[in-house]
Structure formats: C-alpha cells, structure tokens
Amino acid sequence: MATSYSVVRAFSKRYTPSFLSPLLLSFNVCNLSFFPSSSSSVALSSEAKKSPARACSSLSASATTMSFSSSYEKELSVAKKAASLAAKLCQAVQFELLQSDVQSKLDKSPVTIADYGSQALVSFVLERELPSESFSLVAEEDSGDLRKDSARETLERITKLVNETIALDGSYVIPPLTAEDVLAAIDRGKSEGGPYGRHWVLDPIDGTKGFLRGDQYAIALALLDEGRVVVGVLGCPNLPLVPINTVDKLAVDSARGCLFSARIGAGTHMESLDGSQTQKVHVSATENPAEASFFESFEAAHSMHDLSKNIAQKLGVQAPPVRIDSQAKYGALSRGDGAFYLRIAHRGYREKIWDHAAGFIVVTEAGGVVTDAAGNALDFSRGRYLDVDTGIIVTNAKLMPLLLNAVQAAIRESQSAASL
Ligand SMILES: Nc1ncnc2c1ncn2[C@@H]1O[C@H](COP(=O)(O)O)[C@@H](O)[C@H]1OP(=O)(O)O
Ligand SMILES: [Mg+2]
Ligand SMILES: [Mg+2]
Ligand SMILES: [Mg+2]
C-alpha cells in the first residue's frame, strides 16, 4: 500500500468512527459510513461521497498501519474511580439541594456547588493517580466566579465537601486540601485540547438542569489521545439499573446509579455505582423503527423537539419520545433502552467536546454509530468546541442509513418552511 502514514492518519482521523478497533476498522466503516446509493438524499461528507472505494481502501491501510500506544487499562480504572467519587459528592449535594446553591454565571447557566466540587475532585484524582508533566484537562468550569469575595462561603462549602468525599473514600492519606488547592484543581481544566497528545475531557455535571430538578445528570469523563476518544466513563447517579422503560416502578426505583465505562477496542460495560453487577452492554439490535423508541433532551431549549417529532414520524417510530437530561441518554442507548438519540440544537449553539466525548465512546464501543446530521464522524480534535453540521444523531449501524434519510428530509422541510 503506497499510502503514506500521515495521509492515512489524517484521513482515518476524520472519517473513522473511533468506536472501531483498528482490526474492525475497514470492514465496519465501509458498511456504516458510505451508504449505498439508494440513500441518495443522505448527505455524506464530501470526500467520502467522491470516492467511497478509495475511502475504504485507505481505511484498510489505516487498520494495519495504526496501533495504539497502550491499552489504556490504567486510565480507564482511574477514570472510573474519579467519576465514582465525583458522583458521591454530587449525590450528597443533590440530597440537600437548595435553590440558594445556584450561582449565576455570565452565560446564565446554573452552576452549583456540586459542579465545582465534582471538577475539583476529578482533577485531583487524575493528577494524583496518573502524574505526568504533560497533564492536560479540558473541563467545563473555571474558578473565576469562585474567587470573588462574595463566593467565599461557597468556596468553603466546596472545600469541605471535597475533603469529606476524599476522607470517605479512604485511599488518600493526605492533609485536607485548602481552598487554594481546590481552586487550583478546578483551574487545571483550562486546557484547550487539540489534535496532539493526551487530554482528559470533563463535564463535572452534565445536565445541570436535570440535577437541579432532581432528575437525570451525569459525570462525564473521557480521554483523547491524538484527537481520538480512547476512554470514556459516565457516572449516572439517578439512572435505574433496569431499563428506563421498565413498567415495574418498584424495580425502577429500587436500584439507581449506573457507571458506564468504555475503552477503545474493548467494548462498553455497565456496573452499579457501588461497584457491583458489571455487565457488558450492547446497543439495540432492532432493524425496525416501528418497535424502537427515541431519546431527546428534556429541555426544549437544548434540542428542537418539533424536528425530532417529524424525524420520528418519517421513521415510523410509534413510541413517544423519551426525554431525559444529560449524557445519561448515551448510557441508556448503549444498553439498548431505546434505538435513537436525536439532538438538533437551536441555531447558533456550539456543542462542546465535554458534552459528547464520554457518551460518544460509550455508545460506539457498544456497537452504536454517532454522526452529525450530515453523516460526518464527530471530530474531537479541534479544541474545546465540537463543530457539527446541524445536530448529532445516534443509532445502531443497521438503522443509521434510514435515520440519516429521515433527518435530511426533515431538515429540508423545515428550511423550506422557514423560507416561505
Ligand atoms: N442552549 C443550549 N442548547 C443545547 N445544549 C445546552 C444549552 N445550554 C446548555 N447546554 C448543555 O447541553 C447539555 C444538556 O443537554 P441535555 O438537554 O441533553 O440534558 C448540557 O451539557 C448542557 O450543559 P451543562 O453541562 O451545563 O448542563
Ligand atoms: Mg454548564
Ligand atoms: Mg454538559
Ligand atoms: Mg456541565
């Protein structure tokens, strides 16, 4: 194969869903991303459209050329520990949640004591367990508001919570962290990420609105290596261990708290947040949209419910939408609770990498496919933002061509309606 390593690398970075282990690369990509010409209205990425055959042969080359520098086992186990500890902190805060815990940030989104505490804790665990001169963390929060005089009491509460959680865990025999230590831990999340080296990616509480309502939220932590997501963990403290659509409410309420974890090439596992009941999970295998259900944001401000409704109708989905907050949707999808996730953000909203990186690998390692609304693979290598065409869609490999067709048709309809 004459293709040079750098060309293959650049190509595969752009077009290869990172759920594929190198060995599966060429086979699956040729089946998933370059759909047959019968789906003519599906917009594929332009280079792939021009030459699917070349794309597949290049990807075959990449399958044999690329190898991962490590299996990321240690990183996965540390990520699980960090997310589990952060989940404990968040659960304690949600238990006592008072509206006065909500601070106003410049972007007006609610930020809670648990957001900061979770970020400080994850940053602390990662740095302590995986010391490295090149440690890099891309995280949602920063300490700007917390350093204000008016936030002194809040900072004290966060510091106390972080120390209590560390003490409860018992594995770190250290003097208590100071408020300055906590601020510094939060601010280690200021990295810009990018295509080179390793970067941890953290949403300390994804789905803040769900958290405040007492509903679903997630602690979402992922590792990028050379721009690819290689590890992902989702702590979902309120997600039932049984499928979300289980009719027996007692079963749903009796055991909540899921930890999803995925490592590139090693599949996705789910266990309870207390560490028991580990099981390998897989996305729904259904090929029939009529028997499938779809997830979308609880918040209409986060995703266009009307458009999703139209897409679901085109697919023939019978069930009503399942609306829950946060990347818990990716977790639920990875174990087959539903077959579709539709996230079509409102015009002007830019997705962030921490809102999708962990969920992306949890679903793709469970056999799912995640693309933007034009069928492009997601590219986590461009810094803090994730630039996508119109929206993010998720399903299994069999249903993706159908879903892309429906999404494209619904978008065209809404565009022509808007231009009238
Ligand atoms: N206007 C918005 N449109 C889309 N997503 C948003 C918007 N504002 C915040 N988000 C982020 O969307 C995610 C929640 O999506 P969902 O609707 O799936 O629960 C969260 O990551 C939330 O950030 P945050 O982490 O601060 O909660
Ligand atoms: Mg936020
Ligand atoms: Mg988020
Ligand atoms: Mg958040």
Automatic annotation (TrEMBL):
Its cofactor is Mg(2+). It catalyses: adenosine 3',5'-bisphosphate + H2O = AMP + phosphate; adenosine 2',5'-bisphosphate + H2O = AMP + phosphate; 3'-phosphoadenylyl sulfate + H2O = adenosine 5'-phosphosulfate + phosphate. Mg(2+) binds at residues 140, 203, 205-206, 355. GO terms for molecular function: 3'(2'),5'-bisphosphate nucleotidase activity; metal ion binding. Its EC number is 3.1.3.7. Keywords: Hydrolase, Magnesium, Metal-binding. CDD domains: PAP_phosphatase (cd01517). InterPro entries: DPNP, Inositol_monoP_metal-BS, Inositol_monoP_superfamily, Inositol_monophosphatase-like, Inositol_monophosphatase_CS. The keyword Nucleotide-binding does not apply. Belongs to the inositol monophosphatase superfamily. This is 3'(2'),5'-bisphosphate nucleotidase.
